[in-house]
Fold:
Amino acid sequence: MINFIICDDHRVIRENIVKVVHDVMMRNKVAYNTHVFDDYNPDFIKLMKSKMPSKVYILDIEVPSGSGIDI
Structure:
């Protein structure tokens, strides 16, 4: 299972990223989950620190509470 963690403060960009991930993963028939956030909030940090396997991060560089580079 691959876990995609997506964070972007623009709704349209988030939706486009989710669509691309879905299209690519469906072609490859690999089990996956998407976890979508609009900011680096406590829920995001909790998921980031979890021991969930196979995490792929797609992060916005600049959101209201911080930077994807810092994350």
